[in-house]
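Aldehyde dehydrogenase family protein
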Amino acid sequence: MNEQTAIHAQADQLGAALAKGPRGLIIDGKTVQAQSGKTFATVNPATGQEICQVAHGDAADVDLAVRAARRALEDPSWRNMSAVDRSKVLNRLADLIERDAAELAVLECMDNGKPAALTQAVEIEGSIKTFRYFAGWPTKFGGETLPVSPRSGAQILNYTVREPVGVCGLIVPWNYPMSMAAWKVAPALAAGCTVILKPAEQTPLTALRLAELALEAGVPPGVFNVITGFGEAGAALVDHHGVDKVAFTGSTAVGKAIVRGATGNLKKVSLELGGKSPQIVLPDADLDAAAASIAAGIFFNQGQTCTAGSRLYAHSSINDELLSRIADQAAQLTIGNGLDEGVNFGPLVSQEQWDQVNSYVDIGKNEGADIMIGGSRPTGMDDGFFFEPTIMRNAGPDMRIVREEIFGPVLSALSWDDVDDLVTQANDSDFGLSAGIWTNDIKQGHRLAGAVKAGTVWINCFNLVDNATPFGGFKQSGWGREHGRQSMELYSEIKSVWVNLS
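Structure:
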């Protein structure tokens, strides 16, 4: 059996198993149906067909999950677990993800639409790395002894300790379902918190499987709960006074609603929100390297990426040539069902997302931009939510396609001549998540990196991330940073202890 036959066989097996009955919630270590008895369909974006029914959780189910998480937070089996043992549990979870990698990759492909080869490389391998990385933190994350001088002659010992922030509501998006869950679950568990994970309604399946694997790895019941459902479930999680922290990845509009909802008990909030990342190309840049990376930066995952390099600012002297090379890169993409051999460009996640992307293309045309390539559904692909890689050239700085996040495979192309005007345009955005700079003048690259307002700047590369380095945005792209020590700090409280030794 070759690899592609094995992938389709795995998909058939998963489909048959999932069709046997609704997938339940994970609460207090058990699989349960929603108290209302309601379910909803999760759909394969490549076919538009239902995969299975999933429990439709709501506020009542959230309350049960929060109560379970609060009990687990105080249970000695978790509260008193040593740092070494917590590390072992996280490493066992990584081992189990690795064991089931092929199944998880196909499951994510079916539910999200991303080609199976990419779900394997990005979602599954990325999740394994995330859990292994944060498995190293419990034995290294602590407080310190501080020199203090409260009054003359006093002998005072002052030290700090790190304690778990408590019960965490983790709300993750549909564009990278499993890896985004790992980004939040791994540091939360490493810090000793308990969690309620709320996956996007479009992509609930790998979140449920991840919680099952966590139980198998030795995470105590109630520590890792999953509520599937729609916006009202997420809102109930944000509003619940038994939740100490909310971590959210998604749109800026929803992020603002979360901030408002969190005021009831002033729970901690961290947000990774929208982006409209500029790709800045200087006239001395390596155009082949830039074109390949810019194409990947906007067309990878069908443009459904918060860091997507969706605004191109190319120097006027190389603008036409660069656009031609980016179009050549787009032409090499193979569009189709992610389970099929050679496919590296799948569908958008839903009809709703397809409609949004299509409407922005119409808006761009009406505002005066030209469609260089793409702009519609690929010929012969009426099933599924496919949208062509699209370049809109002659865009203007005030156009909506330049200012608003499209979240699809649409590149808005502008040109520039004056570097000061370029910086002004690049920074003239509500967002500040990331930016790319392409130049062989490293001094100019560093100067521009300092001038651009973004949480991550890539010079002569794009979309590189690593668990060791902080990730997050300026302005309306969010609050806080994921990855690294900064992520551990998000899931902990610091306590200062004073001891009179006089």
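The mean pLDDT is 97.
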